[in-house]
Amino acid sequence: MSSCQVLRYYFYQVDMSDLSPEEQWRVEHARMHAKHRGHEAMHAEMVLILIATLVVAQLLLVQWKQRHPRSYNMVTLFQMWVVPLYFTVKLHWWRFLVIWILFSAVTAFVTFRATRKPLVQTTPRLVYKWFLLIYKISYATGIVGYMAVMFTLFGLNLLFKIKPEDAMDFGISLLFYGLYYGVLERDFAEMCADYMASTIGFYSESGMPTKHLSDSVCAVCGQQIFVDVSEEGIIENTYRLSCNHVFHEFCIRGWCIVGKKQTCPYCKEKVDLKRMFSNPWERPHVMYGQLLDWLRYLVAWQPVIIGLVQGINYILGLE
């Protein structure tokens, strides 16, 4: 199709049903350029508004997080939980909606158990087992999704006779599922860890704990660390931090990796994660957790900031 034909289809609004998809795209492209011709100054103003809004929003969010971390974390968690639901219903992503409902139902039950007083003895392990399971599933899902995307970029999907668009959609979907639920479970786990540790009494977000920690008690779950032969209990590995406080290895790993805590549950001395995860195969879990912490800003606040920018542009009459 020549340039003259493209202009004819644009100006006379001719029916494009007889055109190929590529020709239809060219006509739409021409229409878009004609619509926005001469708006360079307006577009520059919109870019400046976007940059200014991002800077101001970032400064406000940092101040909010430093001054009121509890309310910031709660609002962020609520947005991460609800904002994708809006787009899911709007775009009819029913598969995501089913998984979201299942995750929300089980997580709501686990969170309910974690916030009860008095705390049932088996609740801390139930909480950490559930969120550790979701963490491992999200980690594996994200890795598979990333590999699928890379295989598609290198053309390896053709070896299996898979179309590039199908392979890329599969990889991006898995990558999204892994990162989204990885971010969400870590925030829920952090909230549950705070509630449970405060209820047990060996941990306080601010101030001194309400109980004195004995050498034979794990401050994370509140259970005995060492069990006598005649007593009923669970025998498992223990881990001693640099502050000399001893915990169940499962509990302290759940506290640090799943619950996003990097301090001792009792004395708040910083935990050396490199020493705790000395095995090179375990180091990626730490890096993956840091990646999820960075992505939570994009998932929770980026849609809000973009919506605010669009609102400002609408009020100022910018298109």
UniProtKB/TrEMBL annotation:
The organism's lineage? Answer: Eukaryota, Metazoa, Chordata, Craniata, Vertebrata
Domain RING-type: start-end pairs? 218-268
An annotated GO cellular component of this protein is: Golgi membrane
- The protein's organism comes out as Neomonachus schauinslandi (Hawaiian monk seal)
The UniProt entry's GO biological process terms, in alphabetical order, are: ERAD pathway
Report the locations given in the UniProt record.
Membrane
Topology relative to the lipid bilayer, per the entry, is:
Multi-pass membrane protein
Q: Which Gene3D superfamilies match?
A: Zinc/RING finger domain, C3HC4 (zinc finger)
Q: What is the protein's given name?
A: RING finger protein 121 isoform X2
InterPro entries linked = RNF121/RNF175, Znf_RING, Znf_RING/FYVE/PHD
